[in-house]
Design goal:
The complex is a heterodimer of chains A (283) and B (756). Chain A is of the alpha+beta class and 283 residues long. Helices cover 35% and strands 23% of the residues of chain A. In chain A, the strands form 4 sheets. Chain A has a 5-stranded antiparallel β-sheet. Chain A is globular, with a radius of gyration of 19 Å. Chain B has 3 domains: 140 residues, Aldehyde Oxidoreductase, domain 4; 183 residues, Aldehyde oxidase/xanthine dehydrogenase, a/b hammerhead (Aldehyde Oxidoreductase, domain 3, Alpha-Beta Complex), CATH 3.90.1170.50; 330 residues, Aldehyde oxidase/xanthine dehydrogenase, molybdopterin binding domain (Aldehyde Oxidoreductase, domain 4, 2-Layer Sandwich), CATH 3.30.365. The chains are: A alpha+beta (283), B alpha+beta (756).
Chain lengths: 283, 756
Amino acid sequence: MTVLIPQSLHDALAAATANPDAQIIQGGTDLMVEINFNHRKPTDVIALRRVDEIRNYVVTADKKNVVIGSGLPYREMEHGELAKLLPALAQAARTVGSPQIRAAGSIGGNLGTCSPAGDALPVLSALDAVINLRTASQSRDISVHDFMVGVKRNARQPGELIISATLPINNGWQGYAKVGVRNAMVISIASCCLVIDRIKGSVGIALGSVGPTVIRCRETEQWLSMQIDLKNNSIVAPNLLKEFGDRVAKESKPIDDHRSTAAYRRHAVATLSRRLLTRANTQ
Amino acid sequence: MSNATKTSIRRDVLGASALRPDGAAKVLGKFEFSSDLHAEHMLWGATLRSPHPYARIISIDLSEAYKIDGVEAIITSEDVPGKKTYGLISSDQPVFASKIVRYVGEPVAAVAADHPETCRRALAAIKVNYEVLIPITDAELAMLPSTTQIHPDGNLIRHQRIITGDQNLQGEIIVEAIYEMGMQDQAFLGLEAALAIPDSGGAGVEMFVATQWLHEDQKQIAACLDLPIEKIRITLGGVGGAFGAREDISLQVHCALLALRTSRPIKMQYGREESFYGHVHRHPAKIWIRHHATRAGVIQRIESRMVFDGGAYASTSAAVLINGVTHIQGPYKCLNATVDGYAVRTNNPPCGAMRGFGVVQACYAHESQMDKLAVACGLSPVEIRLINAMVTGDKLITGQVVESVAPVERCIRETDAIEMPAPLARNANALEIVGGSGLTSLPHNIVRGVGWGVSIKNLMYSESFDDFATARCQLQNGVVNLKFATVEVGQGFVVLAPQIARSVLGVDEVIIDQVDTRIGSAGSTSASRQTWMSGGAVDGACRLVRQRLFEHVGKIHNIDPLRLVIEDTDVVDMLGDFRISVIEASTGILIDETFEHHHRPTEELDKNGQGNCHVAFAFVAHRAVVDVDVELGLVKVIQVATAQDVGRVLNPIAALGQIEGGIAQGLGLAVMEEIVLDNGKMRNPSFTDYLLPTALDAPQVIAVMIEEPEPQAPLGAKGIGEPPCISVTPAIAAAIRNATGRDLPRVPIRPQDICL
């Protein structure tokens, strides 16, 4: 196994373009487990840990978006300016693994692995993130919804590197919540992100761990925006709140596995989404 | 009389919170665990395991594997020179499966090669042709005579009844239920590992192993290798936890065989996944139980049928079963009983020893019943337990009289007196709330519950087994050298043994010799027994040395040795002014004594389950306070209050460590720890999916140690390792029932059990 450790984005892109089949590694929190278990035996690895250009974030000049480098560790998202701009992302980041894992893990890793349990992915989905992918010669932007194509499958082409995720600075409430079977360091068995855009009067709801990939609840979003004027408030009557959760659950596609059951996961996303909508009105 | 009135407490004697000598090294990552072992020119060993829960081996083809560069040996059942099977109680488990595999993970072959990666390739290249059979994974089904018997010894490992008193008594109040418990893993952190170094000419082998019982390993390895016992010399490798999972042989025989075959040192170590396959687990159990009581709540009769799933091989199932049936009455008076217990063989992973050893299952059932009984009689959980609390002198359902100190009532009352935690604050930090950083719940989603559990646990081995312990003490120039084969698995004998020597002999410097088989057995580090047994052996050896020292001093200074005592670090004449330091008194001489401590003999149970089968008992009460997000079924244990019958506290900080650790393990069983099985296959053999409590799951523990010295125990101290993890599980379950109103007859309690 050869490991290339490029020291700049330029070198990393050149390396990836020259060896499109190379395994890309960022924090290694997923990949090293797979390698240790012999589930994957890469021959060539490109490590991005030293590529500083993708380990930061910038607020765009118009103050409308945040561009988050794919290698920015979750630890950096938990507090500070970024947490104020993107509270749901901060909340999701805080639930990732242990402090050690959060010091290594990144959005690029979540996107690269593309597990439906990736903690940051529902936030990216609910905020309609745009993912930037590059080769040595080309750059393209793709919606996160098109990027996540299936269980651990994404739209990254051989030779491309995941560079960043662009997320809008939203005018309205956003929050994230997760269910796991213990109180820390746990893979989610259901998670939910809810984002309210007061300007557009729209809501974004995305679910983790209840389908082959992160699920965006488009029908429920549309239904909710017809029930209430989201530009002004998001207070719903108890009967509507119940229906809201039921509709979210209906859009989920969970399975039974060793971590939980489909029935519980459906119940959990209904409950989490109701709680988030309630929090949107009270926090 | 000496007029000295020194009141200073010497450092690190009995009763002091002496610190572990290995503590700093473990915290700093410098402790050498067995997996750190290394020898020049060593090869690596690895094990090929069955992917099927039940299959016939049609053929094993090693030819492709042998072609791989670096492969030095491949062994199968045919290469086992001695006994082809091993086992702690009955020798029913093959070193390698030859014709039939009976569980997923059963060893079929082992390889030795120059590198772990070469081993992995070799294992992948071994072609085993299986005829897959339909596994028997349900214990109730397995025990039917009409079911396929999956082992020549049959599917019923042991059946034991307890029949005593009035078999027809019907109580004014009758409560009954069926309780179930899932399969818990010991989940020690230091994985299985061993190093075997062959003697030249293959006459014997030197082994370094992380085990619980050196001499039992030695005996079983020697039988499989067909070598005299003394040709297998075992030194303890660094052990990172055990909890029962190292009592059985895992890689020892394979490692020794490969070393003898290759004439090279062999290193074997399991990864986490292989560890789940490589050791036994806690028995899943299904327990039907019916209590008869008076309207006032006095228990009159117990009926129970207990089924323990032993998995594919017997291991210690027969003894686990005995603990289960003999403890089903709990720490309560009961004169009449009708109990049937079965340990059954299935194609599930083998089960054996784990902290609590059969009593955990029984306690979950009897404590759940006590709460039902309390409700039926209109009593509180505390009242029903106080009404029935056992005392010293009570007769158990086995006919055995409890001679141990039995402060059950005091355990309950002192636990009850511990202050309850403050109510959950409306503005509590997320990390203090169910769901933690997941921001799952807010304070208004949470309901608080309180529950109780009280238990009785036997100490030491039972049913006529003489699990003695040996220790040797040498005194020279004021320095004590202790030698024993007592395995340190984390429980703290490495700190206790020197404390004993300091107290008995008035020395400061105590050296512990290498722990190996060059001295008599110490028995297993299990059954809460080492403080009592090996502590008794060290104490005995030190007392013999002290007697010899007094004789020596008496002779030189012309004083009757009977007048001499140890005071601090001096030998002192009780009736005169004579005083000499132990250092001076022992300069230039060597006193060397060895002592074996045996507990009193016990008996086997007869066919009606009658007999003095246990040595002694310890008691404990737990009160758990939990916060439950009832809507999502999530739980956070807030506080566990406990008062434990410890006899005498020999090291407060070590005792508290045992109590806190045991509570965390019992909490795991209550709400998260379970090996999920699907038709005999483990679904979660990893720490990603086999969930252990984290710091955020561990509750506040407030512990009271009840010190009523046990007359039978050499140091007055009862074993304290197991009781903490036994009744905390039902206490937490009861607290969740209290919060939710649900029946919850099964642990671990899963979110869906609470909210769906």
